[in-house]
Design brief:
Layout (H helix, E strand, L loop, with lengths): L4 E2 L4 E6 L5 E7 L9 H11 L17 E4 L21 E6 L5 H10 L9 H8 L16 H17 L3 E9 L2 E2 L5 H18 L1 H8 L9 H13 L1 H5 L7 H8 L10 H15 L7 E8 L13 H5 L8 E6 L10 H4 L3 E4 L2 E4 L7 E2 L2 E2 L4 E7 L9 E4 L6 E4 L10 H37 L1
Antiparallel strand pairs: 1-2, 2-3, 3-5, 4-5, 6-7, 6-8, 8-14, 9-14, 10-11, 12-13, 15-16
């Protein structure tokens, strides 16, 4: 299988499957000298993982990461302070599957002759043959996106050192749309939402806050603890902090389920999605990603334009459209309406609008980068659908009996956020190199 790799300078390769032993991300291009822990990576993984709330699949995967390579095991010179810092070698992050039981495998085996409409299962069977990993959809499952979140967190941390903030939220769900919110306020909201999820996550508290796994442990010691946790998933989940929806709103000033900076809209989204779920169906929506602090000129002409690279987020399962700025709405504008006019103010360029979403000619303008992803409804639904027997091609009917998400939208936003960070860091490394050479040549001529 090819196609599981992205990047030129910041490179990410992912592998694994929904019901294999686990998944992994191997990252090349991570700069040396950056302190990194499994706890902080998990702080992003828990935003995407299943079983967290009523809008996600009931699968109870903890998504606990193990950094297997790429960090210094100790100070290279005693007392130099570089233990658990990146060292410039490829970084490998493992994410074991812990909620993988035969009863769930059997459910897939019982229905795998009949491809689920809307899934890759028919096309992947024809492409890879009877050995196709159809248990839980394999690498075509949304589960593989945990590798994007893990790798993207690393990219996002590097970007923060460069003054670049990347965040995402639910713009629309089940036909309910969020009102426009100031970017700084939206960023602050998402930071509070993430803090709430860390505080409320039982595995974050049990494994990291209480210290069952720490960065001083060797891989085999961590694996032994993970083996214990595999048998204790339900007990740990039962320890989850108990706060009512109103208490969460009062304490964190966020919605308890939906990461949408308009809390009234978030509640309406939740109600609308639950109403659809009650019929056995599923709902879709829109996720928005924003990046602040980008330099002017980020991106490369023709094949590696910034917006073209972001368009590769169609590779995220369930994403059916990517738009930058005004996106498809430009078709209904005139040139004078669409163009983002400029003026000088205090020695800086100020734009009068941002229909371009911070990108012109494939290069960043230093305005906020705004990207939206259209997310389709979860294809696995509890309604009879027409399909076939993939071996005999006889007509069949199928209704889901496997674990599934009522909507994928509420779990896609951290994937989109961290995927965007991967793209931005890859382009930023090229941009910095190009600008450094340009400045050196200019200096040599003076």
């Amino acid at each position: 299988m090819i196609g599981c790799h992205i990047g030129r300078l910041f490179q990410v390769t992912v592998c694994g499957g929904s019901y294999q032993e686990g998944l992994a991300a191997v990252i090349q291009g991570v700069p040396p000298g950056m302190y990194l822990t499994e706890q902080e990576i998990y702080g992003d993984l828990l935003l995407r993982k299943p079983g967290a709330d009523e809008l996600s699949s009931p699968r109870k995967e903890p998504d606990l990461p193990v950094i297997y390579a790429g960090l210094n095991v100790d100070d290279p010179v005693q007392g130099d302070g570089y233990k658990n810092h990146t060292n410039g070698t490829p970084l490998a992050i493992l994410i074991p599957n812990l909620d993988r039981h035969q009863i769930h495998i059997k459910q897939y085996q019982d229905t795998n002759r009949t491809p689920r409409p809307g899934h890759a299962s028919y096309a992947s069977f024809v492409k890879y043959g009877p050995a196709d990993d159809a248990i839980g959809a394999g690498i075509f499952s949304g589960r593989y996106t945990c590798t994007i979140v893990a790798a993207g967190y690393v990219a996002k941390k590097v970007l923060q050192y460069c003054g670049i903030r990347v965040f995402s939220f639910v713009r629309e769900l089940a036909g309910v749309r969020c009102t426009d919110v100031d970017h700084d306020k939206a960023f602050a909201y998402t930071e509070r939402f993430k803090q709430m999820r860390r505080d409320m996550d039982p595995f974050y508290q049990e494994v990291y806050v209480r210290g069952r796994i720490d960065m001083d442990m060797r891989f085999l010691q961590k694996a032994a603890v993970l083996a214990q946790i595999e048998q204790q998933i339900d007990q740990i989940r039962a320890k989850a902090p108990r706060l009512s929806a109103d208490e969460i709103r009062d304490r964190y000033n966020v919605h308890p389920v939906v990461n949408c900076p308009d809390m009234d809209a978030a509640e309406a989204m939740l109600q609308a999605a639950n109403k659809i779920t009650a019929t056995g169906d599923s709902s879709g929506g829109v996720v928005e990603v924003v990046a602040l602090g980008l330099p002017v000129g980020l991106g490369e002409p023709v094949f590696h334009k910034l917006d073209a690279e972001l368009g590769m987020m169609l590779g995220i399962g369930a994403v059916k459209g990517v738009e930058v700025g005004a996106g498809f709405a430009v078709k209904d504008m005139t040139g004078s309406q669409c163009n983002d006019q400029m003026r000088g103010q205090d020695g800086k360029v100020v734009f009068l609008s941002n229909n371009a979403g911070g990108v012109t000619g494939g290069l960043s303008t230093a305005q906020p980068l705004v990207v939206r992803l259209a997310v389709k409804p979860t294809p696995t639904i509890n309604k009879p659908q027409m399909t076939i027997d993939k071996y005999t091609l006889e007509n069949r009917q199928l209704a889901a009996i496997t674990r599934r998400d009522p909507t994928i939208v509420a779990r896609i936003w951290p994937v989109a956020e961290n995927y965007t960070a991967i793209v931005l860091l890859d382009l930023l490394m090229a941009h910095y190199g190009y600008q450094a050479l340009k400045d050196r040549i200019a200096a040599a001529k003076t």
